[in-house]
């Protein structure tokens, strides 16, 4: 219980210390989602038709259980998301990467928004239901991880800039870096859980929804 309380206190202190940054990063991500959803309306009829054709092919494969093997989907999902947050993590150390971190998070939100928006625009409530079972389950974990890594990366980048430009040395750098490494390690564990959901849970839910929509 003592260890648990220490972890809880550390988490609460972290959130309180970076509350304004969490609000800013979350709003930025939501702006990306909204922009992605709006972007769907800018597609030409041909582009929209081509995308929907490939989407229909994919859903046909899902209903016939011809999609990639579970393990392949798991490794691909984990590899993709880990590379993404690792890049953000490195940018946090590099000092000059602060604006790129924000752009990457915005793009992540834009992809989610575009995917959901396209499904809904093409399939109505059926598209919303497909989005709910294919995108939401793993992103319940992935999105908070991305936001936390973005906050920590931006925070570290700001501290590094303060050290270089303002000569502000308020605390030793080594403990900060160690916490930063720990955050990445814990994030990878959570992304592995999200990958397992995407590979082993979402396809079954999608298959049931596609079968239901085809009736």
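Q: What amino acid sequence fits the structure above?
A:
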């Amino acid at each position: 219980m003592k260890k648990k309380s220490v972890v809880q206190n550390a988490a609460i202190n972290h959130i309180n210390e970076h509350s304004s940054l969490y609000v800013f990063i979350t709003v930025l991500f939501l702006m990306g989602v909204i922009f992605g959803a709006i972007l769907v309306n800018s597609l030409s009829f041909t582009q929209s038709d081509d995308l929907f054709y490939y989407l229909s092919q994919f859903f046909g494969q899902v209903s016939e259980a011809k999609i990639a093997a579970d393990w392949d989907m798991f490794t691909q999902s984990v590899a993709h998301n880990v590379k993404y947050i690792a890049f953000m993590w490195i940018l946090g150390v590099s000092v000059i990467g602060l604006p790129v971190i924000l752009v990457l998070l915005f793009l992540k939100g834009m992809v989610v928004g575009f995917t959901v928006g396209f499904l809904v625009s093409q399939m109505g409530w059926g598209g919303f239901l497909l989005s709910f079972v294919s995108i939401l389950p793993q992103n319940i974990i992935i999105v908070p991880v991305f936001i936390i890594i973005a906050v920590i990366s931006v925070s570290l980048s700001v501290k590094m800039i303060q050290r270089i430009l303002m000569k502000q040395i308020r605390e030793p750098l080594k403990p900060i870096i160690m916490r930063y490494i720990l955050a990445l390690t814990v994030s990878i564990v959570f992304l592995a859980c999200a990958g397992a959901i995407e590979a082993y849970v979402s396809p079954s839910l999608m298959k049931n929804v596609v079968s239901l929509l085809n009736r």
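Q: And what stands out in the fold?
A: DSSP finds nine helices and no strands in the chain.
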